[in-house]
Write a structure and sequence with these properties.
Elements lengths: L7 E11 L2 E2 L4 E5 L4 E8 L4 H7 L5 E8 L2 E2 L5 H7 L3 E4 L11 H12 L4 H14 L15 H13 L5 E5 L10 H13 L3 E6 L2 H4 L8 E6 L2 E4 L5
Parallel strand pairs: 4-9, 4-10, 7-8, 8-9
Antiparallel strand pairs: 1-2, 1-3, 1-5, 5-6, 10-11
């Protein structure tokens, strides 16, 4: 990967969120290797749309959205699906398949999007589970797992496969502050190998922490994405 090519490049990207919504919002965000955008999502009713935009899941009515130098809108569907295997995401909504166990939920995105060896993936997932405070890969179904452990499992799923872009949608959800330390450790390791990340937060504790390793601080609202200072 050419280091001069940004990992994520949203240039005046104007998302069309549904057939009747040609929004006038234009989003500009450029992230290179090791960069982290901390996004205050407390002023947006639908923060997940920005993550969808980064993944090439929203059609555009203008501008462009590129990942690893490739324009999402210009890629064949199969190629785009494979490229999404290089994005790790903690979904604010959970996005669990209820009728299969959490371990399979964790492994499934990598099994679907990549050709990585399933045994190697399982070993990596076990190691990540332990790093996030789980005793191993959870075998319970999502509805049977404690909320705190499910939040940990969501982080395991996001970091599995050494993704080049991490989209962390309110990963501590204002309730699981004991997740912050292992998340920051995992994020530091990902940055060291050249990944970029967007951490969406609704937590005042996270937003106002001056030690948070953000290279960009932005606020997401119904009017778009705007850079802000630490004290605002």
């Amino acid at each position: 990967m050419d280091p001069s090519v940004p990992i994520l490049d949203l240039a005046a990207a104007r998302p069309r969120r549904d057939a009747n919504d040609a929004t006038a919002i234009e989003v500009d965000l450029r992230l290179g290797a090791g960069e982290v955008a901390l996004v205050d999502g407390r002023h947006s009713s639908r923060p997940a749309w920005l993550a969808d935009l980064c993944c090439g899941l929203l059609p555009l009515s203008g501008g462009s959205a590129r990942f690893l130098g490739r324009d999402w809108s210009a890629m064949p569907r199969d190629y785009a699906a494979a490229l999404r295997g290089r994005i790790g995401r903690v979904f604010q909504s959970g996005n669990w398949i209820d009728f299969i166990d959490v371990a399979t939920n964790i492994l499934l995105p990598q099994l679907h999007h990549t050709r990585d060896d399933p045994s190697d993936l399982r070993e990596c997932a076990i190691a990540l589970s332990c790093a996030f405070g789980l005793p191993g890969l959870p075998l319970a179904r999502p509805g049977d797992l404690a909320a705190n452990d499910l939040a940990r499992a969501a982080c395991v799923r996001a970091f599995l496969g050494d993704p080049e872009l991490l989209l962390l949608e309110s990963p501590v959800q204002g309730r699981f502050n004991n997740l912050i330390a292992p998340l920051l450790d995992a994020l530091a390791a990902a940055r060291d190998r050249g990944a970029a990340a967007i951490w969406f937060t609704r937590s005042d504790l996270v937003w106002r922490d001056p030690s948070f390793p953000a290279t960009h601080r932005l606020r997401l609202s119904e009017h778009g994405l705007a850079p802000v200072g630490l004290t605002t």
